[in-house]
Specification:
- Helix 5 packs antiparallel against helix 6.
- The chain is an alpha+beta fold and 310 residues long.
- Strand 4, helix 8 and strand 5 form a beta-alpha-beta unit.
- The chain is elongated and about 85 Å long.
- It has 2 domains: 214 residues, Alpha-lytic protease prodomain-like (Up-down Bundle); 76 residues, Cation efflux protein, cytoplasmic domain (Alpha-Beta Plaits).
- The strands form 2 sheets. It has a 3-stranded mixed beta sheet. Strands 1-2 form a two-stranded antiparallel sheet.
């Protein structure tokens, strides 16, 4: 079975759990169960984004879509995470109201559905964990397994695995709360658990919301400093300055950079110019840039202003 099919299977599997948790959460009057369902929804969305990234990577660019579907991943991440944020704030608001006015909850549904969710998330985490493992057969016939994080796809799958693992642990919390309610009739524990889950989800979703927003706004999120970049670009004495700098990351695996460099009049041959730009590109590739565009200008184009000009 291919990676795409395995991920699709996990998505469908977890969608059934989400629907069950929402239905039985409403029947049992348990907000913790609904919060767990929404947390599962957020994590399934993360896996859907992984699936989208794997599927869209096979589409080629064309004359109309010159960038292809490169921003689809970040667009989906931003919309879905924003929706999750709004939902969690609503859950916190309702849970606080319930702390002061506790409602009777049917704990049996919480325990049963929570246990099913633990098993489902556990199996999903196991499948994803094995997908992130590469098998190497040695000459002596033994098999060696190791995790490899070098490729983007595997980093995506590793992230999805950690999401599913955290889901399983939260579902354990739902089961424990259900047991407490069943034996001790402490109904407000459901509201407290809902608030804890919601804050946990907000905390862990914020980096993705921020990253996707900055990506859609074409804001420079790379770790390279302005001083380091200047050192790389102006490594040769013939480079007078650089301008029209643009750095952006349209997806989690692309870092784009474009700029103009101004050369003095001593650089006359095309071979000299090519060697200079080749060296700059080589250094920028080591900084994580994988799409580099350099325009070469003559001394007449000196701007002596800010490097970032449209």
């Amino acid at each position: 079975m291919t990676k795409e099919k395995k991920i699709l299977l996990i998505i469908l599997f977890n969608c059934l759990i989400i629907i069950s948790e929402i239905i039985f959460g409403i029947i049992s009057n348990s907000f913790a169960l609904i919060a767990d369902a929404l947390h599962n929804t957020g994590d399934v969305i993360a896996i859907v984004i992984t699936y989208i990234a794997l599927r869209l990577s096979v589409y080629k660019t064309n004359f109309k879509y010159t960038f292809g579907f490169i921003k689809a991943e970040m667009m989906a991440a931003f919309v879905n995470t924003l929706f999750l944020f709004l939902t969690m704030f609503y859950m916190i608001y309702e849970a606080i109201n319930r702390v002061f006015e506790p409602e009777i909850i049917e704990p049996i549904y919480m325990i049963v559905v929570g246990l099913i969710a633990v098993v489902a998330n556990g199996i999903s985490a196991y499948i994803l964990n094995n997908m992130g493992v590469e098998h190497h057969h040695h000459e002596d016939g033994t098999t060696h397994h190791h995790h490899h994080d070098s490729s983007h796809g595997d980093a995506n799958i590793r992230s999805a695995y950690l999401h599913m693992l955290s889901d399983a642990l939260i579902s354990v919390g739902v089961v424990v709360a259900g047991i407490f309610i069943y034996y001790f009739k402490i109904y407000y524990i459901d509201s407290i658990l809902t608030i804890i889950f919601s804050i946990y989800i907000l905390r862990h979703s914020y980096p993705l919301l921020k990253k996707s927003f900055l990506s859609l706004m074409d804001i420079n999120t790379t770790s390279i400093s302005e001083e380091k970049l200047e050192e790389i670009i102006k490594y040769d004495n013939s480079i007078v300055e650089y301008h029209d700098l643009h750095i952006y990351a349209p997806s989690s695996k692309h870092n784009f950079i474009s700029f103009h460099i101004v050369l003095d009049n001593n650089t006359t041959t095309l071979a000299d110019i090519q060697n200079i730009t080749k060296e700059i590109k080589h250094k920028l590739e080591h900084q994580g840039f994988n799409h580099i565009l350099i325009q070469v200008d003559t001394i007449d184009c000196v701007k002596n202003k800010t490097n970032c000009i449209i």
